[in-house]
Specification:
The chain has about 250 residues and is of the alpha+beta class. It has 2 domains: about 80 residues, 2-Layer Sandwich (Phosphorylase Kinase, domain 1); about 140 residues, Orthogonal Bundle (Transferase(Phosphotransferase), domain 1). About 45% of the residues lie in helices and about 20% in strands. The N and C termini lie far apart (about 60 Å).
Length: about 250
């Protein structure tokens, strides 16, 4: 676990110190895999004990993620357990399984849609207190993993106080606004997520989230210029009503 070369895809000394601190013992590293991330740097470190995820926060939000994960885990929510922090590094439990991005967009998994709706509902019910309602934020498909029968939420660094329908709307937009766009099966998966959310939370979401879904489709259009017109037209339509896809 010595000093690595000056390569942003490789763990430096602080990263290795974080791994040793997390596992609290001398370990044998069998492999290190760099995982592309939009903002931060992430590695999956395989050891002779168990695999861990090492995340270096270029965003400066390691404290928010650590506290959110610890609070959520203490409330029996399905999230990775935070093992240790060191500098701007956070070491977490590795959740094996399949990304809901692939499961929804390639396999049209109803289990993933139902699981994400349940996860969000439980998060919103349990992560509220006298100081207000906490939302997870960044509620996109790639931030959910299906392991066995359970969906886990990952990447909670943007968690904050807010309106739960913003989470639900962002997830709905992530389901509908990725290829294949706005197909009947995608609307079905979105509705399954919404109905599951309603059944667990006890709150109406199908109509309440519609404006938020439109909002996040408009935001997504800024990031996907090739599909800008498609996304904006869908947002405009959803601002009026749900389409009749029967």
């Amino acid at each position: 676990m010595g000093q690595m070369l000056d390569d942003p895809t490789r763990l430096d000394t602080l990263g290795w110190e974080a791994v040793k601190k997390a596992l609290n013992q001398r370990v044998v590293v069998t492999s290190v895999r760099f995982v592309p991330s939009r903002v931060n740097r992430v590695w999956v470190v395989e050891t002779d004990v168990h695999p861990v995820v090492v995340k270096r926060f270029l965003s400066g939000k390691w404290g928010t993620e650590f506290e959110s994960l610890l609070q959520a885990r203490n409330l029996d929510l399905k999230v990775p357990y935070p093992l240790a922090s060191h500098g701007d590094y956070l070491v977490m439990e590795h959740i094996s399984g399949d990304s809901c991005d692939t499961l929804v967009n390639k396999m049209f998994s109803v289990e993933a849609a139902d699981g994400m709706g349940e996860w969000l509902a439980l998060f919103h019910k349990k992560m509220s207190d006298e100081y207000g309602q906490r939302i997870r934020a960044d509620a996109i498909l790639s931030n959910f993993i299906l392991e066995g029968d359970d969906v886990y939420g990952i990447d909670l660094e943007d968690s904050r106080k807010g309106d739960p329908m913003d989470d639900v709307g962002q997830l709905g937009a992530s389901i509908l606004g990725n290829e294949p766009f706005f197909t009947p099966i995608k609307f079905d998966l979105c509705m399954r997520m919404l109905k599951t959310y309603e059944s667990i939370s006890g709150a109406e979401a199908t109509e309440s989230s519609r404006a938020f879904i439109a909002k996040h489709l408009r935001l997504s259009a800024r990031q996907k210029p090739l599909f800008r017109r498609t996304l904006l037209n869908a947002a405009k339509s959803l601002e009026k009503r749900w389409p009749d896809i029967a």
